Amino acid sequence: MITFDGTYFDGKSSRAHPVTIRADETRLIIAGAGSDLSLGIPLRDCVIQPPLGKTSRVITLPEGAQCETDDFEAIAALEQRTGRNAGLRLVHVLESRWKMAALSFAGLVVCVWVFMTFGIPFLAKKAAYAIPPAVAENLSEQTMKILDSRFLRPSKLPQRRARTLQARFKKLHENIDGKQKYWLEFRKSPALGPNAFALPSGLIIMTDELVNLSESTRELEGVFVHEIAHVRHRHGMRSVIQNAGVFLLIAAVVGDITSITSAAGSLPTLLAQSGYSRDFEREADDTVAAYFSGRGWSTKPYQNILRRITKNMANFPGESLLSSHPLTDERIRYLREREKAVK
Amino acid sequence: MFNGSAGEYFRIWIVNTFLTIVTLGIYAPWAKVRNRRYFYKNTLLDGHSFDYTANPVAILKGYLIIGAGVLLYYLTEAYDPRFSFIFVLLFYLMLPFLIYKSLRFFARNSTYRNIRFRFLGTLGSSFSTYLLYPILVPITLGLIIPHWAFEKKKFFFDNMAYGASRNSFHGRSGPFYKVYLLAVLTLFGSFFLGGIAVAIALRGMVDTLGNEGMRSFALMSVIVMYFVMLIVMTFFQQYIFAWETNYSWGQSRLDTVRFKSTLKATKLIWIRITNILAIIFSLGLLAPWARVRRTRYVLDNLTIISAQSLDDFTSAVEPDVGAYGDAATDLFDFEIGL
């Protein structure tokens, strides 16, 4: 027999009735203190609301009535007996202890880390390969429209030079990846300076500034292979999906207070994004090292142009600030290592 | 009176956030109910607490439907951005319906002394408040905004009911115009003064710094301007919030019960700015503390004045309300409620 004091609300009026409650094996017996209230209710019709902090416990009765009590021990004993709320009682136990809260925090950090380093890149890769080519083409077309209207001007490169480079480019992409469509176009861009980038559709844009900066065609071939690798491994689509994934994850963690923490939340997002793009650059550089070594070429020219681009970038403050490319020295060191490893 | 403690809420928040992530979001509705219920159960009035009784399964269904909608939106946008325009249009058409549903869900699941609250607004007036007025804003060059703010408060306060007793709202839109005018003038004034100060500083800098230094300085001043703007906007928001809350409660009557809210804009601004800083510098860990602190201030300044005892309210019969609206507004983060 469990006995405790509480308050009874009939659900029809806001009046509070002080009561004494007794629970036997099958029934809850509610008796008014100083009134003629007397009820017997089968236990299986009662719902004990899950515990939460140090707030009063609520038992919901049939027909919209309820009892409230601060006698936590009695309710715990009652729950034990009926086996109710097992799941949320466990949650309550976790919530009640600082040690458990600290463990949850550690678990949260680990989960977020695992999702960011393994889960999101893995899912993004799967998703990127599942996206139909039509979507990638559409997206690339829209992006090109924006870039053409804002940052890019028609190329001023001599026709012959452009054609020679395109012929070299064709040979390269046929050797690396025969299945996908690739094509190379040139643009003049005072805004971006010496630069090259790839769109998911297989279109690779190189600026006149980069062509003029190069000292040999081999240097540009290195850049071609790098960009072809970006397309081949679907880096464009993957980074779009990954960034959306990170955003969702951060939103889920700080969900309560979106407006305030969006500023604080964007920092980890930025960090994660630059981490991802580092991985992609590395994968693209791997391809350059492997391809060049396979032909018996040195990656020296490619290293040289990377260094020259970086030096030149200093004149484009916006670019150097937003550049996702990992530090050039580190990339060059990495290329040398790869080259050695392949030999 | 608010009885919650920051430490206790921190533990609840961190455990539930962890469970949400570990279950890939499936636990999210349970977490949401526990978080909200903690605040309700710790809000005491005349010795009794409020309670939040939403069924997490209903909220989960709402999340799934809204999630499918968002996914569809992203897919169509990736395929052809023209479609996404139609989607956005559709969303704005749906918005009044979602707000209406979510207010009903929110009211129905809020109880005090086992009597449910109810929201009695109609779908029609939700459409006029949340679709017609936004359309009128550009047409009237924004002059209707204070009146719109008044209509939003009226839609909420005039349609809330505790059991069978309906709240009535006796406000007028005149005072809204006065307060918004004052706020906007102060806002423009401070921007103007701030602009002059930056211009003077820039002039001095051009002489002392070279071209190289100028570039990083320009970047710095953009960042500084951004923070100044954030602070000025906070002033504006909190001032409006304090006044609107005080006014709306002051103009409300629930049978013979009256309300008095005594929020001070300066105090709210202080709380908001220190909260933001605390959250940023603690990498989000102080968010629960910030929430408890603000809630405590807002609730401690709300007084209920009643000559009669609070024992004599009665309930009303109403069918169950779906949770779709609630989940939707939660996902898109709208300010509803108090």
The number of strands of chain B is 9
Which structural category do the helix and sheet elements of chain B fall into?
Answer: alpha+beta
Tell me the β content of chain A: 15-25%
* Overall body shape of chain A: elongated
Mean pLDDT of chain B: 83
Number of domains of chain B: 1
Largest sheet properties of chain B: 9 strands, antiparallel
Mean pLDDT of chain A: 82
Strand order of the largest sheet of chain A: 4-3-2-1-7-6-5
Rg of chain A, rounded, reads 33 Å
Straight-line distance between termini of chain A: 82 Å
List the total number of helices of chain A: 12
What does the model show?
The complex is a heterodimer of chains A (about 350) and B (about 350). Chain A has about 350 residues and is an alpha+beta fold. Chain A folds into two domains: about 1-95, Pleckstrin-homology domain (PH domain)/Phosphotyrosine-binding domain (PTB) (PH-domain like); about 115-340, no CATH class. Helices cover about 60% and strands about 15% of the residues of chain A. Chain A contains twelve helices and eleven strands. In chain A, the strands form two sheets. Chain A has a seven-stranded antiparallel beta sheet. Chain A has a four-stranded mixed beta sheet with strand order 8-9-11-10, with helices on both faces. In chain B, strands 1-2-3-4-5-6-7-8-9 form a nine-stranded antiparallel beta sheet. Chain B is globular, with a radius of gyration of 23 Å. Chain B is built from eleven helices and nine strands. With about 350 residues, chain B is an alpha+beta fold. The model of chain B is unreliable at about 330-338 (pLDDT under 50). Chain B has one domain (about 5-330). Helices cover about 65% and strands about 10% of the residues of chain B. Chain B starts with 5 loop residues before the first helix and ends in a 6-residue tail after the last helix. Chain B has helices spanning about 5-20, 30-40, 55-80, 80-110, 125-140, 145-155, 175-210, 210-250, 265-280, 285-300, 325-330; strands at about 45, 50, 110, 115-120, 160, 165-170, 250-255, 255-260, 300-305.
